[in-house]
Amino acid sequence: MLAVLCGDTRPPDMRAIEAEAVVRYTDAAGLADALSGADAFFVYDFLSTAVPGAWHAADRLRWLHIASAGVDPVLFPGLQESDVVLTNSRGVFDGAIAEYVLGVVLAFAKDFARSWDLQKQRRWKHRESERISGRRVLVVGTGPIGRSIARMLRAAGMSVAGVGRRAREGDPDFGDVYASSELSRHLPGADYVVAVAPLTEQTKGMFDAEAFAAMKPGSRFVNVGRGELVVTSDLIGALRDGSLAGAALDVFDTEPLPAESPLWTMENVLISPHMSGDFVGWRNTLVEVFADNFRRWRAGEPLRNVVDKQLGYVPSETLRQG
């Protein structure tokens, strides 16, 4: 039996799966009842925080799949200590998020927001814009999404380096990868810092006042990872005092972003509502990824995107093998 946690809508085109298994669709309120007796669990509502509270009812569960790349909503001690296999949806959002990052880099460099404001005022005001070619980017997070970002920015002529768990040279996408423990040493050299690291105990709050103070004057910060990577009050302070020239933020520690947040009215901030990876058809693609793993699970074949529950992400070695 398969339990599926839904939000406002059910996942599209589940007919092939429904033909192979008994499927229980549920919202957060009914999750405990749906988990009782379930062998597999599809967390389609990947922003839900309901799973830990209903975990006591998971009496037969062997596999949990989440419809996102990040697994922090389901990475709690009960799951980590269990024998339940955890898989995610890595690979779905890589290209779309990379396009988003290139888009906001260009928006900052070409001052598109100001052009739009002047257009609405019917004002002709000539300005000079920046080149992005040759500008240095530090991508913090070297998983598949970070790699896709690195490839796209390199193709646009930017100089890219990465920050990951281990330092290494000669990486095909990043060139140099610096250890995350040495992040503060490499922040001063970057014109753009892109946060795309998974949320773990080690990365939570990694962008704080100290990190922003280390960044190059005039640099910009882009967060397409998790809101909790950032100490929001410290980011606001850095934007206000001019330590940062701007920020593009797609994720926040509180979502939706509260109406009273100062970020809404800052002229040097671009805000999007956690949508950098959501291209037309993305929900269908998420179901396709789950359906492929569901077929593998039913056939006893190795699953794709198996998460190391202690690390909180799919190890790179596993990705290469898959």
Automatic annotation (TrEMBL):
Instruction: Please name the Pfam families in this protein's record.
Output: 2-Hacid_dh_C
Q: One MF term in GO for this entry? A: NAD binding
Family matches, as InterPro entries:
D-isomer_DH_CS, D-isomer_DH_NAD-bd, NAD(P)-bd_dom_sf
Entry annotated with the keyword NAD: yes
Looking up SUPFAM superfamilies in the UniProt record yields: Formate/glycerate dehydrogenase catalytic domain-like, NAD(P)-binding Rossmann-fold domains
Residue ranges of every copy of the D-isomer specific 2-hydroxyacid dehydrogenase NAD-binding domain listed in the record: 103-276
The keyword NAD is annotated on this UniProt entry: yes
| Record's keyword terms, sorted | NAD, Oxidoreductase
Protein name per the record: D-isomer specific 2-hydroxyacid dehydrogenase NAD-binding domain-containing protein
Which species does the entry assign this protein to? Amycolatopsis japonica
